[in-house]
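Morning, I've got a small favour to ask if you have a moment. I'm working through a protein record and want to make sense of it properly. The fold is given in discrete form, as structure tokens running alongside the sequence. Can you walk me through what the tokens say about the fold? Thanks so much in advance, here it is:
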Amino acid sequence: MTGTEYAVIAGVIFLAACLQASTGFGMGMLAAPVVAMVDPMLLPATLILLALLVTILVTVRERQHLDLRGTGWALMGRIPGSFLGAWLVAVLSKEGLAWVVVVVVLTGLVLALRGWAPRPVRVNLIAAGAASGIMGTATSIGGPPMALVWQGHQGSRLRGTMSAFFMVGSAISLASLGVAGAVTAEILTLALWMVPAVLGGYLASRFVNRFLNAARLRMLALGASALGSLLLTGQLALAAMRP
């Protein structure tokens, strides 16, 4: 990658880490389309590694507000879903994976905008956990299913519960991807270079939380995700038209 590409990825990782630490989700939705435009082969492992760091930091910070019971039920679905997602990474081409990113992001946007709000009961938590495992492991975008089922939580409870779930879920996804051979030396190197951007985004979130309410953060995440998806769709369409 060129220096410009590194700078672009670092910038979006900073913003995505700030968003994740402020809302409990959104890192993949914001960063995945941009990373896919630079090199789809960096997905999903790079973002899952970096998301794991963010979720550890937020879980420790919000540890007194966790919904441990709900997290436990959701993880029951996440485990088998993660293995299925790793299989998709192994069988899809990089163009196919990029299209999956687009479809996942746009589906999440549509559901969020329509205001669908399933109740956080046992069956829904397990189903959302399974969907998050498939999507998160295959594309690094596992937030939408859990955001839908936990959208009744507010503030620290939402951030803490989502982060605790994704902390464990990301570790499971990484293990699954490692078994599938999808965690390469290039991915590990890039993740290490991006750690300062993640830490900067996490620190910035402590200030952002004071000025941006949940509604504004939600619209920021949706808008950025939509823009990234449209840009990635345009790039894929142009590539398909080339001889």
Observations:
- The radius of gyration is 16 Å.
- Residues 3-241 form one domain.
- The chain has a mean pLDDT of 86.
